[in-house]
Amino acid sequence: QVRLVDSGGGLVQPGGSLRLSCAASGRTFSIYVMGWFRQAPGKERGLVAAISRSVLSTYYADSVKGRFTISRDNAKNMVYLQMNSLKPEDTAVYYCAAGRGDYSDPKNYDYWGQGTQVTVSS
User: Fold this and answer.
1) Rounded CA gap, 31 and 56, in Å?
2) What is the pLDDT of residues 74-105, one digit of tens each?
């Protein structure tokens, strides 16, 4: 089992940047695939970015490709989401998640952070 704590959200102007962080507990962090999901008001939660256990492979939703970068540090039990060129439509609660299996399949995620609000507005 793994416990996740998200942080780094806030208010940013369009075109700005934010870096989300996720701290994971437990000694077995490296066995989990990791992802960032987001949920905007009135919409379903969706997978934004994901990374394999070995850090060699990543997945991005089409809406964030070229703007967001996911990374992980298995030695520090940390996952990050660097968000650049932010748009108002990126406004949502962002959740860090851990799972097993195919990292690009949202159904494989079992453990969740508490969420961090990202608001993109002028």
Assistant:
1) 14
2) 999 999 999 999 999 999 999 999 999 999 99
